[in-house]
Each structure stands twice: as structure tokens, then as C-alpha cells.
Amino acid sequence: MTDLLVTNAPTVSVFLVTGSGIPVFGSGGGFDLAASDNAAFKSAFANGGTLSSIQAQIPTFTGPNYYTVVPSFKNPRYAEWNLEVQQAFGDKTVATLGYVGNHGSNLAVQQNGLNAYCKVCPFGTLPSAAPDPRFGRIRELTNQGISNYNGMTATLNRRLTKGLQGSINYTWSHALDDISNAGFDQYSFNTAGEAFLYQVDPKNLRRYNYGNADYDFRQNLSASYIYEMPSMFKGNRLLNSVVGGWVTSGVIYKRSGQPYSVVDTGLTSHTTGNNSANIVMPFFLGGSIPSCKVDITCLNSAQFSENPPALDNFGAFGNTTRNQFRGPGYFDMDMTIKKNFRITESGLTVSMGANAYNVLNHPRFANPDNNLADGSAFGHIQSTVTPASSPYGNFQGSAVSGRVLQLELEVKF
Questions:
Q1: How far apart are CA 271 and CA 87, in angstroms?
Q2: Annotated domain spans of the chain
Q3: pLDDT tens-place string over residues 256-292
Q4: pTM for the full model?
Q5: Which of 51, 119, 146, 229 has minimal CB crowding within 10 Å?
């Protein structure tokens, strides 16, 4: 937040250069135009100039971008509630059923279109000219966001018994918000519009933004286990050393698909001074959306249109809220198997084994191409996703989605 405030003019001036056919470098390029705008702005600011006096010298001049925070910015508030019941089965097994809910208010939201206007009118409720022509894009940080979560979790835990222990968890939940992570920390970067960072309609936050959270995974199943082969032959140390000492463990994880929105970058040129992060959504004409799989088209472009239907209750930004479509599910299974060799009676033990990440070599597919402007690529899955954990650590971006095997040698004393 502070960094963004520091970049305001006149300390730092950020200019948005728009137009077709403008090269990035060279004479008349984007950097050249921005530098000219900056020089003219600094000169006018120091000498009492105005927008009109600058545009008299540079007709294409547009004012700098600006960032602001509402005068009374509040801390987020959360109300949480839960209920849990447990039932024991003997002294080794416990079943738990829990409900958790929470509601967040005063959440941060970045409004990126305070100075937005439409080039192709009517476009929503935007004016036909910039409200303040002295500036380009004006972004304001507010705390009008809300969130809601409700979830049911069933858990079965078994304590160590005859070498076996484990747990299994199933959760059904629904998470909704206006902007996940307040738009400061994007949840996903796989496809365009998969995570909205800003308010879609500058005049109405709830109309398009309030919907499934970026991480609204409705169903989650996870399980873990560990089994150590007990000594089976009393008095026979040789057989026990061969059969005993084997340990296997693993985790299983399965969840439903990640939500995403259908966007159309071909429509972003209809507005100026608004968010340019591909958040303009085409109109969904209805019909069933097939289950998202790699060998079939997940989305049908004929079910979407850039032109609003005759009966439109939303506005020109689309007729669906964000994150109304679902990608493919996710499945992962990791496994470890090793053998413990007891070297001395005092406790010196050597373990040899292997860890297998994604042991079944099961592909985990990303959401399909969700940009209507991409033509034939629209609706097709084009990439896989990597797991959160791997031999290289958690969230390390190892870019490995297939099976990974790791040998292990461990000495305990």
C-alpha cells in the first residue's frame, strides 16, 4: 500500500500509453511517448501549467495514473462459529463431524476504474468521457469487500494399532468473496482472468465480483497412513530381520475443480481508464457445460457472445458473476517404502528406501483456455499444474507434474 502511494505524481509519474501500432522502443515508441508526457507534466507542474497548456504542446498527452486510499480505512472484521461432535469406537478409533462458518467484512478491495469511461457506448454505467481528464487510471483502495464460508468436515482417525495408524478426511465447503486476497496476492496465474484483482464494474462491486472465491474447492478428500511390519517370528532373529522392519506410508489427496471465469480480451478496448486485466466477461447464452476433461472441449464458444442479449439484468460487462465455471479435478498420491536394519542392540539403525511423489504418474490438468478472443484454443486444456509439495520443498515451483522418485539412506543412533 505504501509503495503504491509513493509512486504518485509528482514524486513519480506513471503514464499509460494506449493505441494501436505503437512500437515499444525507438522514436514514437511507448517509452518515448511516456518520456515526453513526463517532461511536459513536470514542466507544467513546476510553473503553474494546466492540462490545456500541456495538450497545446502535446495533443496526445494523457495525465498520469494515480493511487489513493479512502479517508477512513478500517481494519477487516471476522465473525466465526463452529460446532463439532465426536464419537469413539473403542480406545483406538475416533470419528469427528464438524461444521465451520465465518463471515468477513471491511475487506480490502482495489477499485481500478474511478476515472473510467467508455469508448463504445453504452457500456455498463460508464460515462462517455473521463470524470477527471487531468489523470489517467485512478485506483482506490477501499474496504467494502465481504466474504462468506461454510464447510462440513468428517474425519476418521485410528491410533497406532498392530503397526497401523492413519486418518481420512472429507470436506464439503463453499467459499465466496468479492476479490480473493484483496487483489494484492494473485492466487493463480494459469489462465487469463482466473484470478480477478480489481472491481469489474466501477459503479457496482457486488454485481460481478461477489461469487465463488478463487480457492473455492467444493469437495476435498485427504488420507494418510503408515504401516510398520511387526516381528512375526518369535525367537527367530534371522527371519524377523528379513520380514520385519519394513515400513510403508503415504498420502492421498483428491479435490473437485478450481473455479474460473470466461473473459474476452477483445472487449477491453471498449473502455479507457478502467482495469485492463482482461476482466470483461462475454455473455453466457445458456446451455449445459460439459465436464472438463483433457480429451473434450470444456467450453463451447457458441454459448458465449460479445453482444448483450435483449433481456440483460446485469449490464454490458457480462451476465455472470466471476468464477461460475469449473475446471478439472485434482488427484495425487505419494508413497514411501523403506527397510529398517537394526545394527546394534543399543539402537544403531540404518534405513534404506524410496519416496515416490505422484506414484501413479497421474496427470493434473489446469483450467482450460478461458479467453473467448483466443479463437480455436478457447475451451481446450493446454497445460498441467504442479503439486504444492515435492522433493524440492513446498511451493518451490519445481515445474514437475509427473512422477518423481527419491532414494533415501538414513542412519539413526
A1: 58
A2: 2-69, 77-412
A3: 999 998 888 776 666 665 554 445 677 888 777 766 7
A4: 0.82
A5: 119
